[in-house]
User: Which sequence fits this backbone?
């Protein structure tokens, strides 16, 4: 939850930005301060990516462009920060396609369950015409633009005391999902009771038994220390999540072309580093989580995939567009 202090802090930054834009061009060129809010912990590769971008841009601009990074939900929930970017009170944040669906519902398609085969398949979305159309619509309707698509990882299920191997074991299971209706529909297709909880509140909810389990990629399970409050790791691979670098469109267009080019090059390099780092971490984290005390379950993936694909794409076809799920799956 965003505190009043955080909201005042964001709005003060917006006022400062507005004042900077009113300054003479010769002074304005001296420094550009960019505020970038992140939901995840500073130890997560996504936040480390932003920190690398900040250092790279500062060095290449001789200190003229200063990206200030606020990790760990300091500036509020993911939705709070996206709303601030939309309003121009915050310049950048990073979030998932499903979460962006609160602002442009069609974007939930890009984080649909059992859509992408792997990271390389997901990377093709940035060049897909349907994605370009959604990006322009997001900019025109909500004042935000997606500058990069990054790999966040394969999502898996974790549970507390309840051993789960098939969807039949999920009946009545209270599964924390993000506040995204596509995720909720997926959980319900398994027979679970979908329970939306904001990410910063998730560890406490798990530790207190408010929910029976959650689902996230391995690096998030590790950085969030969910292994401390969850006993089983079920390798369901149900969603490959993309996360987007999101900018206020007016701010982006207001930057000199050379600065946009410098920033975009840093984003591209940072995203490539993060994708590689996350894939590397995923390769070793199953063993790491085993050593941390988790019992790893390798289920029949088809048993998890079948009930979801039988219901979810059809349920959201009118939102996504007829044939859109199949078109992206075939990329």
Assistant:
């Amino acid at each position: 939850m965003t505190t009043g202090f955080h909201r005042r802090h964001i709005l003060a930054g917006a006022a400062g930005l507005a004042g900077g834009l009113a300054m003479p061009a010769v002074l304005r060129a001296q420094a550009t301060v960019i505020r970038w809010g992140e939901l995840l912990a500073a130890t997560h590769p996504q936040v480390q990516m932003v920190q690398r971008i900040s250092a790279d841009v500062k060095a290449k601009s001789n200190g003229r462009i200063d990206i200030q990074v606020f990790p760990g939900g300091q500036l509020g929930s993911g939705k709070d920060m996206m709303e601030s970017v939309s309003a121009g009170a915050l310049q950048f944040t990073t979030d998932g396609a499903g979460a962006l669906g609160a602002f442009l519902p069609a974007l939930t398609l890009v984080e649909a369950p059992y859509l992408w085969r792997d990271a390389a398949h997901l990377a093709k979305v940035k060049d897909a015409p349907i994605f370009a159309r959604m990006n322009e619509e997001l900019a025109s309707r909500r004042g935000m633009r997606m500058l990069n698509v990054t790999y966040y990882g394969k999502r898996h299920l974790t549970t507390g005391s309840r051993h789960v191997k098939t969807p039949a074991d999920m009946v009545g299971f209270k599964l924390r999902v993000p506040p995204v209706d596509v995720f909720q529909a997926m959980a319900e297709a398994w027979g679970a009771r979908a329970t939306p909880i904001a990410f910063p509140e998730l560890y406490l909810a798990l530790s207190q038994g408010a929910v029976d389990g959650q689902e996230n990629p391995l690096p998030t399970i590790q950085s969030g220390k969910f292994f401390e409050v969850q006993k089983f790791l079920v390798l369901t691979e149900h969603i490959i999540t993309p996360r987007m670098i999101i900018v206020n469109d007016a701010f982006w267009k207001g930057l000199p072309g050379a600065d946009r080019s410098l920033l975009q090059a840093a984003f591209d390099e940072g995203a490539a580093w993060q994708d590689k780092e996350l894939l590397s971490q995923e390769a070793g984290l199953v063993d790491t989580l085993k050593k941390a005390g988790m019992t790893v379950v390798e289920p029949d993936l088809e048993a998890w995939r079948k009930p979801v694909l039988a219901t979810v794409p059809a349920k959201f076809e009118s939102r996504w567009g007829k044939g859109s799920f199949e078109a992206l799956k075939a990329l």
Observations:
- Strands lie at 32-37, 65-70, 92-96, 144-159, 174-177, 193-196, 213-217, 232-234, 240-248, 295-297.
- The first strand starts at residue 32 and ends at 37.
- Residues 1-28 have pLDDT under 50 and may be disordered.
- The longest helix spans residues 257-291.
